[in-house]
C-alpha cells in the first residue's frame, strides 16, 4: 500500500530583499515518517519551517497539507489543522508555571467561551499529568517556566508540542544545549513519536541525527542537495563539498 | 502560614468595608467627594491593569473611554434638569438641540450608553489595530494620537457640547434629586464602592480562568501563542473592550462626584497617570491597581490643595522611582517577599555600621536593635541567606 503524502512543497521560492532563502524547493513527507533535515547555515532550514507554519509567505510555489493548500492561512489556523512547531531557542511562556504552559497547549481546540468561563476539564488535567511525566517535570509543575534550566525549557516546549496533538510536528534544533544523556533521551522520544505522528527534525548535531535512524534531507542554498539514509549522505561528494569545502582545497 | 495570611486578609477586608460604610458619616461632603472620585478611578485602573498589566497592551488613551462615559451621564443630567435646552446653549445662540443629544433624554439609553459606547469604540479601535498587528510602542502612540483627536474634537465644539468649558453637574437633577446635594453625594459614594467591588470581582474571575493565562502568554510571547493555535487578535480585542467598558463606568461615576466633565480629562497627562497608578500599585495584580489608583489619587488631591502645581513633579518622580526601584509595584514587591528581603538587607548593612553605632541617638539605636531582632527571626527561616544568623547575633549583643 502506498502511504499518502501528508506534506508536499512544490517549487517553493522565498526571497528576502533579493536573497533567495528557498529556491524552487520540492519536499514531500509521507504520513508517519520521521525525517531529519540538515544543511549548513543559511541553507533555508528555518525558512522552510516558516513557510509551512505561515510565518513567511512564499513568493512562488505551493504548500499542501493533507491535500489542502496552506498558503495564505493565518498561523493559528495552520496550528489548528495539525501543524505543531518547536522553535530553535525554546519559546515558552516564562511568567506562567510549567503546568499552565501545558494547559495552554492542550486547550487549543477549546472554544473561546469555555476558555473564558471554565477551568480545564479533568480529561485535560490528566493529559497535562501525562505530559509532565513524559518530560519528568511533575515535581516542578508549579514552578514558573522562566526559572527552569535550558534543558528543561527545551523539553517543556517539546511537551507543549505534544499537547497540541499535531499530525505534523516540526522540531527545530531540539537538542541544542542539552547534555549527551538528554540528547539520547530526546532522540528516543522523537523516534517513538514517528509512526503515529509525522515528525520533521532540524539539527546540526550529526550524532543526534544518526541516532534518529531516519531518512535525511540535505538542504543547501534553498534547494534539496540530496536525500537518503545517513550512510549514503555521509559518502555523497556533494554533501562533503558543502560541509567541508571543496576537496581540491583540502588536498592543497 | 496560609491560614494566618487568610486571617490577616480577612481583617484587612473587614476594616476596609467598615471604613467605607462609616465614611459618609464622619467626613465632610467635600472630603467624601475626593474619596469617592478616588474609588471611581480604581475602576478605570482595573481596566488598565487587565490590558497593560496582564496582556501587555500599553494604552495611553484610556481617557477617551473615561470621558465618553462622563459625557454620557452629564448630557443625560443636563437634558433632564432643564426646561427646553440646557442653559449653556443660549450663550452660543443655539436654538435647536444637536441631533446626538436627543437619545440621552432616555434613562434606559443613557444607562447603556455609559458603558456600551466606550465599549463599542474600544472594540472597533482594538480590532482594527490588533488585526493589523500593530503592537508595542506603536500601539501606545496610536492610542495617544486618538486621545488628542478626541480632545481637539470636543474642545473646539462650543455649540455642540460646550467645548472647553465642559458640562457641569451639581445643579442638575437625577430622578428628581439634586446631584450636588450631600445626601445624593453619599449615595454616589456607596454606588461607586459597590461598583468598584463588582468590577474587581469580575476582573478577578476573568483572570482566574484559562483566559487569564492566555493573556499573560500573549504578553510573554504573542507569536508563540499564534503557533499554539490561538488567535491573539480575539483575546486582545476582548480585553481592550472590557477595559473600555470599565473606563466608561469609571468616568460616569467620577463625573457626578467631580461636578464637571470637560476635555481636560482627554489630555495626555491624565491617561498617563492611569498607567502610573497601576505601575505604583503593581501591574498584573488587580488589587494593586485599585490601591494604586486610590492612594496616588488621594495623595494627589492632598498635595494639590497644599501646593498647587507641585503634583506633576511628584507624579513624575513617583514614576521614575517605581520603574527603577520597584518595577513590580508595591503589591508585586510584597508578593515577592520584598519586605523580608529589605529587612535582611538592612541587617547586612548594619554589619558595616557597627563602628558608628555608638554615636547614634538612643531612639535610633533602639529602632535598629528592633530591626535586627526582626531580621534575625526572619533569617532563621531563610535558606538564601545562611550567613545571616551570625551577623544578626553579633548585632544583638551590642
UniProtKB/TrEMBL annotation, chain A:
Record bears the keyword Amino-acid biosynthesis: no
Domain spans labelled ABC transporter: 7-246
Keywords assigned: ATP-binding, Nucleotide-binding, Transport
GO CC term, one of those recorded: plasma membrane
Transmembrane segments: none
PROSITE patterns: ABC_TRANSPORTER_2 (PS50893)
A molecular-function term among this protein's GO annotations: ATP binding
Name of one Pfam family that matches: ABC_tran
Protein name: Urea ABC transporter
UniProtKB/TrEMBL annotation, chain B:
Main location: membrane
Single annotated GO MF: branched-chain amino acid transmembrane transporter activity
Database matches in Pfam families: BPD_transp_2
Record-level GO cellular component terms: plasma membrane
Membrane topology listed for this record: Multi-pass membrane protein
TM regions (residue ranges): 12-32, 38-57, 64-89, 109-130, 137-154, 187-207, 233-254, 274-300, 312-334
Keyword annotations from UniProtKB, A to Z: Cell membrane, Membrane, Transmembrane, Transmembrane helix
Record's subcellular location: Cell membrane
Descriptive protein name: Urea ABC transporter
Amino acid at each position: 500500500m502506498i502511504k499518502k503524502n501528508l506534506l508536499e512543497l512544490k517549487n517553493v521560492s522565498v526571497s528576502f530583499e533579493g536573497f533567495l532563502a528557498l529556491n524552487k524547493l520540492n519536499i514531500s513527507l509521507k504520513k508517519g515518517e520521521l525525517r531529519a533535515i540538515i544543511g549548513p547555515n543559511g541553507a533555508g532550514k528555518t525558512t522552510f519551517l516558516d513557510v509551512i507554519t505561515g510565518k513567511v509567505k512564499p513568493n512562488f510555489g505551493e504548500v499542501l497539507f493533507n491535500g489542502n493548500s496552506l498558503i495564505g492561512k493565518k498561523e493559528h489556523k495552520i496550528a489548528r489543522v495539525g501543524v505543531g512547531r518547536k522553535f530553535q531557542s525554546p519559546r515558552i511562556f516564562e511568567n506562567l508555571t510549567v503546568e499552565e504552559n501545558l494547559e495552554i497547549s492542550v486547550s487549543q481546540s477549546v472554544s473561546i467561551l469555555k476558555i473564558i468561563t471554565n477551568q480545564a476539564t479533568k480529561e485535560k488535567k490528566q493529559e497535562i499529568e501525562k505530559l509532565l511525566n513524559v518530560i519528568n517535570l511533575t515535581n516542578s509543575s508549579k514552578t514558573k517556566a522562566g526559572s527552569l534550566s535550558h534543558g528543561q525549557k527545551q523539553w517543556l516546549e517539546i511537551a507543549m508540542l505534544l499537547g497540541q496533538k499535531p499530525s505534523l510536528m516540526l522540531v527545530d534544533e531540539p537538542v541544542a544545549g542539552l547534555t549527551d544523556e538528554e540528547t539520547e533521551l530526546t532522540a528516543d522520544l522523537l523516534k517513538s513519536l514517528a509512526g503515529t505522528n509525522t515528525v520533521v527534525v532540524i539539527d546540526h548535531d550529526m550524532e543526534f541525527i544518526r541516532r534518529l535512524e531516519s531518512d535525511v534531507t540535505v538542504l543547501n542554498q534553498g534547494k534539496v542537495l540530496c536525500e537518503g539514509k545517513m550512510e549514503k549522505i555521509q559518502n555523497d561528494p556533494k554533501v562533503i563539498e558543502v560541509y567541508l569545502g571543496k576537496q581540491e582545497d583540502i588536498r592543497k | 502560614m496560609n491560614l494566618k495570611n487568610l486571617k490577616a486578609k480577612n481583617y484587612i477586608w473587614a476594616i476596609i468595608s467598615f471604613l467605607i460604610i462609616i465614611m459618609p458619616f464622619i467626613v465632610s461632603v467635600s472630603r467624601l467627594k475626593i474619596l469617592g472620585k478616588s474609588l471611581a478611578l480604581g475602576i478605570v485602573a482595573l481596566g488598565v491593569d487587565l490590558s497593560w498589566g496582564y496582556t501587555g497592551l500599553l494604552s495611553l488613551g484610556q481617557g477617551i473611554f473615561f470621558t465618553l462615559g462622563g459625557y454620557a451621564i452629564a448630557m443625560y443630567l443636563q437634558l433632564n434638569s432643564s426646561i427646553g435646552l440646557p442653559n449653556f446653549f443660549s450663550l452660543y445662540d443655539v436654538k435647536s438641540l444637536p441631533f446626538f443629544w436627543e437619545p440621552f433624554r432616555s434613562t434606559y439609553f443613557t444607562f447603556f450608553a455609559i458603558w456600551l459606547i466606550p465599549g463599542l469604540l474600544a472594540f472597533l479601535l482594538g480590532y482594527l489595530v490588533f488585526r493589523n498587528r500593530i503592537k508595542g510602542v506603536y500601539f501606545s502612540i496610536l492610542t495617544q494620537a486618538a486621545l488628542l483627536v478626541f480632545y481637539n474634537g470636543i474642545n473646539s465644539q462650543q455649540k455642540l457640547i460646550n467645548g472647553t468649558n465642559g458640562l457641569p453637574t451639581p445643579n442638575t437633577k437625577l430622578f428628581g434629586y439634586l446631584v450636588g446635594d450631600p445626601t445624593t453625594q453619599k449615595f454616589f459614594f456607596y454606588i461607586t464602592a459597590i461598583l468598584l467591588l463588582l468590577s474587581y470581582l469580575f476582573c478577578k474571575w476573568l483572570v482566574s480562568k484559562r483566559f487569564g493565562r492566555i493573556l499573560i502568554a500573549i504578553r510573554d510571547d504573542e507569536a508563540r501563542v499564534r503557533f499554539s493555535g490561538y488567535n491573539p487578535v480575539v483575546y486582545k480585542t476582548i480585553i481592550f473592550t472590557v477595559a473600555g467598558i470599565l473606563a466608561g463606568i469609571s468616568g460616569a461615576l467620577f463625573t457626578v462626584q467631580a461636578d464637571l466633565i470637560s476635555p481636560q480629562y482627554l489630555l495626555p497627562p491624565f491617561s498617563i497617570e492611569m498607567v502610573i497608578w497601576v505601575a505604583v500599585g503593581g501591574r498584573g495584580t488587580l488589587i494593586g491597581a485599585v490601591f494604586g489608583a486610590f492612594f496616588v489619587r488621594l495623595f494627589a488631591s492632598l498635595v494639590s490643595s497644599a501646593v498647587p502645581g507641585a503634583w506633576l513633579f511628584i507624579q513624575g518622580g513617583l514614576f521614575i522611582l517605581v520603574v527603577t526601584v520597584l518595577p513590580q509595584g508595591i503589591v508585586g514587591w510584597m508578593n515577592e517577599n520584598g519586605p523580608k528581603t529589605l529587612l535582611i538587607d538592612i541587617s547586612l548593612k548594619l554589619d558595616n555600621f557597627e563602628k558608628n553605632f555608638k554615636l547614634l541617638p538612643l531612639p535610633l539605636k533602639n529602632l535598629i536593635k528592633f530591626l535586627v531582632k526582626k531580621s534575625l527571626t526572619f533569617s532563621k527561616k531563610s535558606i538564601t541567606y545562611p550567613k545571616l544568623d551570625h551577623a544578626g547575633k553579633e548585632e544583638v549583643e551590642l
